Amino acid sequence: xxFPEAVRWSADGRAVDVLDQTQLPERELRLQLTTADAVAxxxxxLVVRGAPxxxxxxxxxxxxxxxxxxxxxxxDFMARLDESMRNLRxxxxxxVNLFWALERMSGVARAHELAHAPPEIACKLYGEATxxxxxxxxxxxxxxxxxxxxxxxxxxxxxxxxAGALATxxxxxxLAPVYLAHAAGRDLKVYADETRPLLxxxxxxxxxxxRAGIDVTLxxxxxxGSLMKKGEIDMVxxxxxxxxxxxxxxxxxxxxxxAVLARHHGIPFYVAAPSSTIDRSTPTGEQILIEERDxxxxxxxxxxxxxxxxxxxxxxxxxVTPAELITAIITDRGVMxxxxxxx
Length: 343
Known about the structure:
Elements: E1 7-9, E2 16-19, E3 30-33, H1 36-44, H2 51-67, H3 74-89, H4 96-112, H5 118-147, E4 155-159, H6 176-183, E5 188-193, H7 200-211, E6 216-219, H8 224-229, E7 235-238, E8 242-244, E9 249-252, H9 255-265, E10 269-272, E11 278-279, H10 296-299, E12 318-321, E13 328-331, E14 334-336
Parallel strand pairs: 4-5, 4-7, 5-6, 7-10, 8-11, 10-13
Antiparallel strand pairs: 1-2, 2-3, 8-9, 9-12, 13-14
Helix pairs in contact: 1-2, 1-3, 2-3, 2-4, 2-5, 3-4, 4-5, 5-6
């Protein structure tokens, strides 16, 4: 089974090795990020994207930052870690995995700050970041295995944005069942929304599925409803950046209208995400902070002016799909169905 590695340690273990997703599909360029600041910048610029991959990269960047400052005294060392964590937290406010991973790293540092010197704490942080990466790989496969029975033979699957290997440390979330179904020899077809305005569907999802030999067709976002009306879609699978305690799901902008269309046409609508994406401290989707992107991503996407240069723009990065529109949530722990009283 072939899928790209979005984030990993460099061969010498001294850098976070990431696939620059802003360059796809034109070229495959891997970057070596050696500081937490470099990782934060990569997350902001969407060089690294996808909730699980963001969390992994942030943890790894923090570990590198700790290793670079072991000569500081204990107080200054912890202050430096706190500063780096604040910077990383401020990169993408909606992706809960970012905060989850940094809390894990902070917990390790705080648990050892009194009994261990900075070099020992740095070593433990490196080990924790590595565990987060390895756990994510296992998580992806578990999601795939739980979701596989939901994909029938000859399934026609619609997905939005990119929730594949490029968004995680493994084979992805929404695409994990697709990868396993393909590996099992099932005949299936994937339709990928282009995903305006940054085209993660066309640039990333289509690229990685073609690379894996999976039958995929790119469609403009506005075509999905017509395909459903024609009976060409059997199921929708999307990822998630945050899942509220009641089952409301924040995902890439454009997900909510797909859920409405799926309900109207009687098509199952599945969300696939790691259990770490479930934010039990957020009661409903109403409390989820939605990131807004720079207006020029719409006015002059990829450098070409496609609107008046001073046009007013509203460009949220995510929308919230109410739990009542979701058929099931596929996690590494199993498939959860409504009512999502124990999400």
